[in-house]
Design a protein that fits this description.
The chain is an alpha+beta fold. It is about 40% helix and about 15% strand. It contains 16 helices and 22 strands. The strands form seven sheets. The protein has a four-stranded antiparallel sheet. α4 packs antiparallel against α14. The longest helix has about 45 residues. The chain is elongated.
Length: about 525
């Protein structure tokens, strides 16, 4: 750190955001409401807001916003839902209590300098470690404001911001080109998937087959096998009850296995306008092709069932949303003990399970848990789908989930206000196209033949985007270590009329504040 900079807690150089006095607000008065869902965490900008009257405003509408504030989401800080209030229309409007409102003292801290600091890994990583809670991990406002900031003189803050703006602008042009290329690849990808799940990619192959079973025949076979599986489980239970009685009914009576409930087949037309499929195909619900295991479709544990304090450095691996979205199950691994795992069996994951994110717009990022992976546990933001392998090719259903056909359905069943998500029960209402296992396998082969080059290009673009984010963080690191400006730029800062060492500036401000007259109470 340079001699003319100071290290200080953020709260020392910030003004506190005012809370709105809701009881005094006329119910018919209108307001603009900013919440976490209105922040685009890819570009760190406010892209949407909601209009309410105080009568129908959500209970979290509590804080008054000023132009130049930084809105920092205290929920899931690793998602980087952070934005600068850069539009005058939001002056004196209202934001969610889910934000820490960072408002730098104008005489010592520029708004954009603190905004860039708030998206810097050196600021975020300590906060990520302080999060508590499983289903709703968050930090407290005080945690945010207790973080240290390295503070340079005001002219240097302005010069640093200008240089970051310039460097980021150049990077953004390159990133925009990469994203445009990736968007074109995605259009092609979705065109391939659409044809695949309309049966078009296997049309010629299907015409050459002579003994393909129909989907109806397959489903009857599955029903028959489910019944046989249930009867075996019932026999085991009856034997266990006999043994339990022999032992004087000591301990808990064995639980009787449940017979699979009849699946309700809601009218297809009521769910979505479905695409055309071949006559030998049909639409099915996930439960109809799910494994016979008791917990073949399920979500992660809620609330106190899995806390951050349960995380260990070894044991049974925990699978997070980031593992699914990046298809990397070795990423920042956390574990639970064997003992803890025994209470989380319902949320366990086996190799080759399809794992799906519950949140998003729409949700539905998915990956197949590797064949050589250890049994694990999913967190609350994840969902698992274990396919009955004798009649289901996992990759067939994974690609289907990635298609617009399923994405549209997911959009219809996603619910929630602050965080939209799907439940296991709503997931079971989805419609999947279904055909013989042989044709599923052929469909996957046709898809992968066409997408192999496309996916490699997309992966290359993703790597370039990751490198650009690493470069962005490298620029911020240099900026907040005082190494971004060259000697000539620093000399120019020192010629500014308001330049003085940050220590001196802060001391003068603190002196002024201590001299402020205290308010006298009315007698």
């Amino acid at each position: 750190m340079r001699d003319d900079w100071i290290k200080i807690e953020l709260e020392e150089v910030c003004d506190k955001a005012e809370k709105v006095k809701r009881k005094k607000m006329p119910l018919s008065n209108s307001l603009i409401y900013l919440d976490i869902s209105g922040v685009d965490n890819k570009i760190n900008q406010i892209v949407d807001h909601k209009n309410y009257t105080w009568e129908d405003a959500p209970s979290r509408a509590q804080q008054i916003v000023k132009y130049g504030d930084v809105l920092f989401s205290t929920v899931r800080t690793y998602l980087r839902n952070i934005a600068l209030v850069s539009r005058k229309k939001y002056e004196n409007q209202i934001c969610s209590s889910g934000f820490a409102v960072i408002r730098g003292k104008k005489s010592i801290l520029t708004s954009k300098f603190v905004f860039y600091f708030s998206i810097y890994d050196g600021f975020l990583q300590p906060l990520n470690q302080l999060q508590t809670g499983s289903s709703y991990p968050a930090v407290r406002n005080i945690d945010v404001f207790k973080q240290n900031i390295l503070l340079p003189p005001l002219p240097e803050q302005r010069a640093i911001v200008a240089k970051i703006d310039q460097l980021f602008s150049d990077m953004d042009n390159g990133i925009a080109n990469l994203k445009a290329a990736k968007a074109k690849l995605e259009i092609y990808r979705q065109a391939v998937l659409k044809k695949a799940f309309e049966g078009e990619l296997t049309k010629l192959w299907r015409e050459k087959q002579t003994s393909l079973p129909t989907s109806d025949e397959l489903l009857e076979q599955i029903k028959d096998q489910r019944l046989k599986y249930y009867q075996k489980q019932l026999q085991k239970w009856e034997q266990a009850v006999v043994e339990w009685k022999k032992n004087g009914e000591d301990g808990k009576k064995p639980n009787k296995p449940q017979k699979g409930k009849q699946i309700s087949r809601t009218s297809v037309e009521k769910i979505i306008e479905l695409q055309h499929i071949p006559d030998t195909w049909r639409f099915i619900h996930p439960e109809e092709i799910a494994s016979f295991d008791k917990y073949s479709i399920g979500i992660g544990p809620f609330g106190s069932n899995l806390k951050v304090m349960d995380y260990k450095s070894s044991g049974i691996p925990i699978i997070f949303v980031k593992n699914i979205t990046r298809n990397d199950f070795s990423l920042e691994q956390k574990f639970v003990t064997e003992k803890k795992y025994t209470g989380l069996i319902a949320h366990s994951v086996q190799p080759l399970d399809i794992l799906i994110t519950k949140m998003g717009n729409p949700p539905g990022d998915c990956a197949i848990y590797p064949a050589n992976a250890q049994i694990g546990v999913i967190t609350s933001d994840c969902l698992k789908f274990r396919v009955f392998e004798k009649y289901g090719e996992r990759r067939f259903f994974k690609y289907c989930i990635e298609s617009v056909f399923i994405k549209k359905q997911l959009g219809l069943i996603t619910q929630g206000v602050a965080q939209k998500k799907i439940s296991a029960e709503r997931f079971k209402t989805l419609w999947f196209p279904f055909c013989s296992l042989k044709e599923q396998t052929q469909t996957v082969q046709e898809i992968e033949t066409r997408l192999s080059v496309c996916d490699k290009l997309s992966e290359s673009i993703d790597q370039s985007l990751k490198k650009s984010e690493a470069l962005r963080q490298s620029i911020l690191k240099k900026a907040f270590e005082g190494k971004l400006l060259n000697k000539a730029e620093l000399q120019a800062c020192r010629q500014e009329p308001d330049w003085e060492p940050a220590q001196k500036l802060l001391a003068s401000i603190q002196k002024k504040e201590t001299k402020k007259p205290s308010r006298k109470r009315k007698s």
